[in-house]
Amino acid sequence: MPYVEILAPPLGEEARRKVTAAVTEGLCEAFSVGPGTVTLYFLDIAPGAYAHAGAVGAEAGPQRILVKVHAYRRGVEARRAAAAALTAPLAALYGTVPKTLAVYFLDRARDEVAHGGHLASDVDPD
């Protein structure tokens, strides 16, 4: 953990590799974790499957991008660093401006997460 969901327009494989590198490096630095803990899910949102301010598709303006970071609770400084580390590179890679990109932190306590059928709070944290 962290697990990251990126709801955004579809990207080609090379661009996805660049996004993966940027997100992994940014979260490893901000959260002091290793790359083996970071997982990304690309949830492609086609233009016609997006609406904003009552308009659909191209009429809605530039598609907003939502990045959900599921992780164990961290302090405000770590979340601030993660938001900064993710926003500019992702906006550039998706060809948009930072204003259209939102990062939501969905923090969890270790007793609210299970891996392999065991609560994270019940397992050695190594």
Textual characterization of the structure:
With 126 residues, the chain is α/β, with parallel strands linked by helices. The protein has one domain: 2-Layer Sandwich (Macrophage Migration Inhibitory Factor). Helices cover 29% and strands 29% of the residues. The protein has helices at 13-31, 76-93; strands at 3-8, 39-44, 51-52, 55-56, 65-72, 101-108, 114-115, 118-119. The strands form three sheets. Strands 2-1-5-6 form a four-stranded mixed sheet, with helices on one face. Strands 3-4 form a two-stranded antiparallel ribbon. Strands 7-8 form a two-stranded antiparallel sheet. The longest helix is centred in the first third of the chain and has 19 residues, at 13-31. It is elongated, with a radius of gyration of 16 Å.
Provide the structure class: alpha/beta
Q: How much helix, percentage-wise, in residues?
A: 25-40%
Global morphology: elongated
What letter string, H or E per element, gives the SSE order? EHEEEEHEEE
How far from one another are the termini? 13 Å
The neighbouring-strand order within the major sheet is 2-1-5-6
How many domains, as an integer? 1
By CATH, the superfamily comes out as: Macrophage Migration Inhibitory Factor
List how many beta strands DSSP finds: 8
CATH first level = Alpha Beta
Proportion of beta-strand residues: 25-35%
Fold topology:
Elements: E1 3-8, H1 13-31, E2 39-44, E3 51-52, E4 55-56, E5 65-72, H2 76-93, E6 101-108, E7 114-115, E8 118-119
